[in-house]
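Follow-up to my earlier ticket, as requested here are the two runs.
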Amino acid sequence: MTVLTSSTINNFDGSDLLPPDYAIDIENKRINQDKVLNTHGKNLLDLCLSSGLRIVNGRLLGDSLGYYTYMSKNGFSTVDYALVSESLLSSVQYFKTNDFTYLSDHAKIDLFLKCSINENTEFKLDNNKWKSINTYKWTEQSKNLVINALSTDYIREEIISLEILDINKTQDGVDEAVEKLTDILQNISEMACKKFFGSNKKRKRKKDNLGQIM
């Protein structure tokens, strides 16, 4: 019978935990001050194993000891994680678990990635497009209206069209699928929710007789 210790779980690259074809990070073993493994932790490890993800906590400069990220009346634990793919792990330059403050029972975590950015590059947004964006508000009648919208031939055909769409595994393919899904959600919202027309103009705030801003 194989016994799994907490140190084996925390470094989760033991041969008794991983499938034979799993790429092991021999040079970057994890250190974790939290030695308790619960159901949520086991599910997280299963996700990493099945998806080829790596836990950054306790591996790199800034958190080399695997500090706690959560405190409560029952003690300290590590529940806030940064996950990256195996290919991205070498691009992680720095990871830090910050000190606890009175603002939260969780410690803030920071992740710094190596990247190449041209400082002279300008990112411009088309303001005309933003002016035409509408917002929708859920009302008491919206639930039944959504059900009715999903029953219409038009919406059903749109959903089927998306389901049978041959999506290319490229940026353009993903963009096309997202655009079709957005159109479906917007059409349903048009039928079921209260519509507000978008505008980039700031509303003027009224003053009462006392001169206070309302």
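Run two:
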Amino acid sequence: MADMVINPDFVEERRRSPMGARYGKIMMWFFIVSDSLTFAGFLVAYGFMRYQSHGTWPIADEVFTHFPFLHGHYPMLYVALMSFILIVSSVTMVLAVDAGHKNEKNRCATWMFLTILGGLVFLLSQAWEWSNFISGSHGAMRLKSDYIALFVDNKNEKIAISDFISDQENDMDELERVRLAFSSNKDLNLRVNNEFIKNEDTAKYFQGAKIVRGANLIENEYGHTTFANFFYFITGFHGVHVFTGVLLNFIIFCNVLLGTFEKSKDYEMVEKVGLYWHFVDLVWVFVFTFFYLI
């Protein structure tokens, strides 16, 4: 039987959908749409819980105040920087796709490398942010009613427990040490549910209270525990997406270096991972808005 000759154009048409796009790209769009709905559900739930917990929700400017290698109060500065890095990585991804369309192997590889680098910097920054959130910065007092009482000065600005507690009474309970140091310093006050409470009116709040430091799934020195739960879950879920994107970009980057796409003159795989990377960046814009700006 004679060998059947298959028309390459016919094969190419079979690989394309009736809309003129390849099925691989359409499947990527299906994934993006479905995953968008997942993130939307998480953020809507977050918004609902925040609305229900009005007054006890942490203030972002008082939570995310750290900056690497610098001591001081820098609200939102590092979060803004890491967000900027992620957005810039989206620009480098666009340039990588453009280089691929022009079959420019070296330029495509360069921009993909910078995209991967931006993703790694973002992941490391997020891990550093998590470590600070977990360890805490000021400490607070969890009341018997489960509300969080923050220590503030006369200007209603947060004060760290380490700034006024004495280390001399090491044999005493920590709460008692805090109570004694607090009551002896009339410049210290409490803030509960955004309500400023003067020092002389705070005695009852120490009854049955507990000192908390940092934020985890059970306790949160910054405010409502649900904030920490949502923060870890949503930013962690997004972080998994970023890590996956970095891994996919690295695989495609290796193929670019090997000349796999240059030989076939088809860089569509770069475009597919580019779609995914833009999606990850866009999702972060909404996560950033919900957690840090609103």
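The only thing I checked on run two: The chain has a mean pLDDT of 88. Let me know what else you need.
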